[in-house]
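Hi both,

Apologies for the delay on this - the queue was longer than expected. I finally got the copper (II) ion-bound model through. Below you'll find the protein sequence and the ligand SMILES exactly as submitted, and right after that the structure tokens for the full complex including the ligand.
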Amino acid sequence: MTVARARRILLPAGLAALVTLAPAVAGAGAAKPRRPKPVTKRVQIHDNYYEPAKLTVPAGSTIVWEWPATTGDAHDVTLDKGPKGVRRFQSEVAASEYTFRRRLTKKGRYRIVCTLHEEMTMDIRVR
Ligand SMILES: [Cu+2]
């Protein structure tokens, strides 16, 4: 008898907890739209191309350009065209053992070019 009475008391309390929890969960989901997490992507410098030549990354991602260990032609990484308000950037001209990184926070298209080889280009899409 006492157990049955205890259940009767507990059940509404449990339901009340569910009712109060449900809107809280839905509210949190509505307030925070799903945003893909920033990533780090590596790009290899070759004679004369970037690999990969096309990238799509979430805003806030970091791109790391890596020159090879063995010396080849000299190359650089220059922002030729980017979204409005993004400052142009340029790496050093290097032939080997060099790394250049940039965090891309603004959405849009970034066109990268090597100033020594105009055919050496890459496109990064930040979304
Ligand atoms: Cu080059």
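Main takeaway for now: The chain has two domains: 1-34, 40-126.

I'll put the files on the shared drive as well.

H.
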